[in-house]
What we know:
alpha+beta; CATH 3.30.1330.40; 130 residues; single chain; YjgF/YER057c/UK114; 4-stranded mixed sheet
Amino acid sequence: MEKRTIDPWKWGERTNSVQAVEIKQPEGTLYCSGQVAIDANGIPSNGSMREQFIQTTENLEQLITESGYECGGIVRLNIFTTSTTEFFSNCIDLYQEWITKHGIKQATTLIEVKGLFATLTVEMEATVVK
Length: 130
């Protein structure tokens, strides 16, 4: 796989994403459904957004790994949250650590939604290549 990131504006260096990602000659592409803080028994979390973010990233990592891919291959990451203000106040540090840990440079969209399933407050969907 050949990966090229494009970010024509200088302010992009301060963000946790890039404006575009080009992939040439991938071995495969994995399209992940939105992952949330649901445990192995299918029970949604009642925890804080911060706790839910941790479980959501763990679930996404497990899905990607068990599919034979690596988190570093994420090229598109969409985040849905019931409050962007709460996400930036309580989860942005975790998000930055997670992105750095895996060396991810991805196109990202953060979307505030009216609601998610049950008591959930954050959902992440990813496109991963290798």
